[in-house]
Amino acid sequence: MLNLRPAAGRVVAPLAAWLLRVGVTPDMVTISGTVVAVAGAFAFFARGAFFLGTAVVTLAVLSDALDGAMARQRGVSGPWGAFLDSTMDRIADAAIFCALALWFAGRGDSTTLLAVSLFCLVSGVVTSYAKARAEGLGLTCDVGLAERLERLVAVLAGTLLAGLGWSGGLAVALWLLAVASTITVGQRLREVRRQTHGGAAPSAAAG
Question: Could you say which of 27, 89, 109, 142 is catalytic?
Answer without folding.
Answer: 89
